[in-house]
Design goal:
Layout lengths: L3 H5 L6 H8 L7 E7 L2 H10 L5 E5 L7 H15 L11 E4 L2 H11 L2 E4 L7
Parallel strand pairs: 1-2, 3-4
Helix pairs in contact: 4-5
């Protein structure tokens, strides 16, 4: 069961910041992963971080590239929350994959921060 890997992950260094951001009413917190959906992943997020406004994950069996998956998923979330025309200077992407970070920042024309992790990917 691949879902066991989630519990072997260490929360990213920004976990405390995410928890604080969840308390800000006008801040949209989206957690995106290139991993397949798993209830144990959702449980891990809720246990280690809290309940973000949205989760983006890979559909089971999908082979879409990780950066493309995150861009599409985040775009859908922004539409759901009526944030399509959000000022890109108000978006910050935190990512532990350099390639994904560049793709996300280029696409959303926003700032980003590389956060090295010990994730099991």
């Amino acid at each position: 069961d691949m879902s066991v890997n989630y519990w072997q992950d260490k929360p990213l260094p920004l976990t405390k910041k995410f928890k604080k951001d969840l308390l800000v009413n006008n801040r949209l917190v989206i957690i995106a992963t290139a991993r397949e959906f798993s209830q144990s992943w959702v449980d891990f997020i809720h246990t280690e971080i809290g309940e973000p406004d949205a989760l983006v994950f890979r559909e089971v069996g999908s082979n879409i590239g990780g950066a493309e998956l995150k861009i599409k998923g985040i775009t859908e979330v922004l539409k759901q929350f009526n944030c399509v025309s959000i000022d890109s200077s108000k978006i910050t992407v935190y990512e532990d994959n350099h390639e994904y970070l560049k793709a996300l920042c280029d696409h959303f024309k926003c700032s980003g921060e590389y956060i090295p992790s010990q994730q099991g990917h």
